[in-house]
Amino acid sequence: MKNFGSLVLAAILGSVITITAYQWLGKGGNQGVKIEHIEGLPTSQVAYRINEKGEAIPLDFTGTAEKVTKAVVHIRSTQTGGIARERESNDPIQQFFFGPNGPQQGPSVSSGSGVIINADGYIVTNNHVVQEADIVDVVLSDNRSFKAEVIGTDPDTDLAVIKINQKDLPYLSFVNSDNSKVGEWVLAVGNPFNLNSTVTAGIISAKGRNINIINNNSNNPTSRNNRQGNTAIESFIQTDAAINPGNSGGALVNLDGGLLGINTAIASPTGSYSGYGFAVPSNIVSKVVEDLLAFGTVQRGWLGIQVGSVSPELVKQEDLSVNEGAYVDGFGEIEKSAAKEAGIQKGDVVVKLDETPIKSSTALIEYVGRKRPGDKINVTVDRKGKTLVIPVTLKNREGRIGTVKKEEKSVVDALGMELEDVDAKTLKKLDLKGGVAVKSLSSGIIEKYTDMRDGFIITHIDNEVVKSAKQVNELLKNKKSGDQAIFAGIYPDFPREYLYAIRF
């Protein structure tokens, strides 16, 4: 009994000691871990940014995202394709694989984004989003869909303007991209991977980037741009806001919802976002859009010089007196060069255009690219340590001053064909009543959608005998979108009649 009483007393004493120790430890500031939960505190109240008035305001993307997504559209571009087949082929292998009418090609669809810039339905996007499209569909943020008309394109900046027949649309206003700063918050809005109204956030990582992506035809030695030199204007805003395929043509905006640029490209070893995206600055976009709407083509001023950025190696090699600028390495066609005419010399370093410092060839190309033929600029150059200010009146690409008219291509040129008449001796030898030879094929509908080869002799178009290259253009120029044209003819070394069909 005595032992039982001792056990009870020990238990009570142990409980008292445990409770006392717990209370003492709970009051000790360094003896435990306290986890505090505070509900309802949004992150926008713990991060701030400074607005243009110098006021600290909460960093919050929600209002900007809601405003901007309404003005960004989804663009679907359809290339309807063409048909190439051999007429009534008796070849059993041909019939086994393709049927009696030969191989056929169907439509292909690609997608991108666009930004509404006017309440009346004008939309800016990338040229590569709508290039060679037969049908362009625009889907608004509220899922309404419209057919769009391509108003104009500018391959040199990879920009295009399209229009839908709709009024009172939400739109974005341009802001001065020159005022944007590295480190500034931006949002990228578009439709990557067909995911509509996607918003990503990041900062401006760099400005004035040239990544040699526009008009890069190094793999096509016969292309027009490769023969005449790459005339691209690249001075991208670089951002780490996530951009993926489908974002092309979408908006890069500041936190006030102003349009800073048009998202155009990514730098990626995989084809998907890897940390860098590039947008055409709004000041370039604005100029291109204004020209396309007013003239149908971009009015671009040219200095007529070949330039490269000053580098440490160039400074040492040429014994330059400056470490930054655009080095004049030569001239284009001298008789067309505005710079040569004004007195600029090879070896000069352009350090300023008007009041804008020029630190690289990219900066020079961007500044001049915003000007029109006839505009006058003051070019400040360093010439062997001496500073000179040289007034220059810019010319157009043809070396003249004045408005450039929109080039009207013949239908044959637009199809990517160079034709030549067939002489009577050849026609007699091949027992043909008429024919026009395909001298060469370049990028166009014919090359893309048919198997036609150089040397093909067109004898009929839609069952009408063809006797001259001029007649081909006359037969095709009245074709409308959706119309089909059938080219019949032979190859001199394989005189079986072939049919090639395309749809406009």
The gyration radius over C-alpha positions equals: 33 Å
Indicate the CATH architecture of the largest domain: Beta Barrel
Distance between the termini: 111 Å
Proportion of residues in helical segments: 10-25%
CATH class of the largest domain: Mainly Beta
Biggest beta sheet attributes: 7 strands, antiparallel
Count of the domains: 3
* CATH third-tier fold name of the largest domain: Thrombin, subunit H
Provide the β-strand percentage band. Answer: 25-35%
Poorly predicted ranges: 16-32, 40-46, 82-104, 217-229
Shape: globular
The overall pLDDT, averaged over residues, is: 81
Q: Give the total of beta strands.
A: 27
The structural class is alpha+beta
Number of helices, counting only DSSP H or I runs of 4 residues or more = 13
